[in-house]
């Protein structure tokens, strides 16, 4: 799927949301679902998940799982923040939203650099405490009775925790904070929480679908060079978007001042 196609899809969901009747509870929930799906298609979200998909095993079934876990982490943050906003009747300051977006920029730069260099924070921390992802398994050959050991590396698992954490960081940034403002305008607390939950369900479904599309070329790249090129392309895009956010928020908008 090209950038133009993604842009057209976003516009279609935006138009659909604009025509939704939000006066009734059912209409509000439908709007939440539509906006959740659209939310998953934002450039910084897709860039972050793309680096996670490209960094591991080339299995198509892995991609939508990472997308759903991103949505789950995103929803968990929104529900926690929503409880605070709704029960204490407070608003999230605009400056705090900007700081959270700056944090997303930093995270994207880190994901981009890790994709380009192969640096993994988990491996680095294990090295500090003298733990390695590799450990020894005993192996028996039934034909000969020969027993030997070999190392087994767990570094290339599905990295679900990374996708979950990335989703959580995205939770309060950008349109996620706007969604909380919409939820706060709903008079009923249960309905507002339901709105957040269904928004989260929409973001999970949307990101799972987009991740599956992203995973198709990665899973079909049989050439090592092509696979490496796709991995580097995802990392460069993530780094560029993150660096742009850092510059815009830190230098131009000066969110820390």
List the helices and strands and how they pair.
Elements: H1 3-18, H2 25-39, H3 43-54, H4 62-88, H5 94-117, H6 121-128, E1 134-140, E2 147-153, H7 160-170, H8 175-184, H9 189-220, H10 224-252
Antiparallel strand pairs: 1-2
Structure description:
The longest helix is centred in the last third of the chain and has 32 residues, at 189-220. This protein has 257 residues and is mainly alpha-helical. The chain has helices at 3-18, 25-39, 43-54, 62-88, 94-117, 121-128, 160-170, 175-184, 189-220, 224-252, and strands at residues 134-140, 147-153. A hairpin with a 6-residue loop joins strand 1 and strand 2 (147-153). Helices cover 72% and strands 5% of the residues. Helix 3 (43-54) runs antiparallel to helix 10. Strands 1-2 form a two-stranded antiparallel ribbon. It has one domain.
Number of domains: 1
Provide the helix percentage. over 70%
What's the total number of strands? 2
Distance between the termini: 40 Å
Classify the secondary structure makeup into a structural class.
mainly alpha
State which percent range the strand residues make up. 5-15%
- Count of helices? 10
Which outline best applies? Answer: globular
Radius of gyration: 21 Å
The residue-averaged pLDDT reads: 78
Instruction: Describe the largest sheet.
Output: 2 strands, antiparallel
Strand order of the biggest β-sheet = 1-2
Indicate the low-confidence ranges by residue numbers: 124-128, 147-157
Order of helices and strands: HHHHHHEEHHHH
